[in-house]
């Protein structure tokens, strides 16, 4: 760890600059919560404003997306001057100018005390990190990465090692989102590199309350989807991308049929859109079953209705960095079946407790897990209640503790020996 740079002793109010590509629906409630802290003066710097105007999301198959939750309300924010903005997010987009001048501060303000960056591999992130170093401002990074990512060539792994050797000299600490993320940082930055837990969380109160409110309208949604209320519901809600492996869930659901040509008793409700939808619909047509409902893209405020509707939620993804949809549905007291490739699994779902954990693309194992939840009397309710208890401590207050702990240590020049991955 480098010596602390430019932070005053025990500042009365720490001025934090947060650099992120664009307004993100999951992050907005957390930023509002941080902005409420009397000892923190937060300013968020966005590279692009495209989510505010609606956009065609390739992950949802080009469906037009405009989020129906407030994205930039309740906290100070600025949109940086644009050099490149094509309404996508990647290493080369967006690209902005003016980061150095804004970190230096306006006349009478002085430089920011701390820079927090979301991600590390984009031009903007590296620009911010280098600018902060030029000004002597400490840098914290938060990212979703884990070691379960897709395979890399030897040359790419060597280049990545070299990159992190350099990055280690430019960053003062990381904010870890969970267990697998901690392992990632330790692998590339070393066991001794400063890390503070800032778990990937959602607005638990929002999703809990909205799901409870949705119960009164459950019959209306059942009627809309033509569902028999006596039959259980298996829910998938995510982008229909091949890596999400919804096709595995469909095949596992078909295996629940008591005999060939017989309809499985539970319904399968699929919320979302994307590249895999035509294949899923074709497989459904070939099976000649009636119990699948394709609901298309639904906005964030609509999802609690589906959480309330379902008996069990399934996310059978490969290479899923976290899976915040799991946090959301746990607030509805519903069990979750997921693969070990979903980043949140070690922290949120223990096999047989809050749900079930299965190997990626193991259709028989997924079918067996569905049976464990749906066919064992009381299992779904027991696991759902355990899920609700578990998620209650994985919250924004834990995020705030991690962030303020990082601020304290950097302020006082203390190198932490914090082994925690989360709350």
Question: What is this structure's SSE topology?
Answer:
Blueprint: E1 14-20, H1 28-35, E2 40-46, E3 55-57, E4 63-65, E5 76-79, E6 82-84, E7 95-96, H2 99-104, E8 114-118, H3 123-135, E9 139-142, H4 154-168, E10 173-176, H5 179-189, E11 195-197, H6 204-214, H7 218-224, E12 233-237, H8 246-254, E13 267-271, H9 277-287, E14 292-296, H10 303-309, E15 312-315, H11 324-330, E16 336-339, H12 345-348, E17 355-358, H13 363-375, H14 379-391, H15 396-412
Parallel strand pairs: 1-2, 1-8, 2-5, 8-9, 9-10, 10-11, 12-13, 12-15, 13-14, 15-16, 16-17
Antiparallel strand pairs: 3-4, 6-7
Helix pairs in contact: 6-10, 8-9, 8-13
Describe, in plain words, how this protein is organized in 3D:
By secondary structure, the chain is an alpha/beta fold. It has 2 domains: about 15-200 and about 395-410, Glycogen Phosphorylase B (Rossmann fold), CATH 3.40.50; about 205-390, Glycogen Phosphorylase B (Rossmann fold, 3-Layer(aba) Sandwich), CATH 3.40.50.2000. Helices cover about 35% and strands about 15% of the residues. It has 15 helices and 17 strands. The strands form 4 sheets. It has a 7-stranded parallel β-sheet, sandwiched between helices. A 6-stranded parallel β-sheet has the order 14-13-12-15-16-17, with helices on both faces. Helix 6 crosses helix 10 (about 305-310), helix 8 packs parallel to helix 9 (about 275-285) and helix 8 packs across helix 13 (about 365-375). The chain is elongated. The model is unreliable at about 1-10 and about 415-420 (pLDDT under 50).
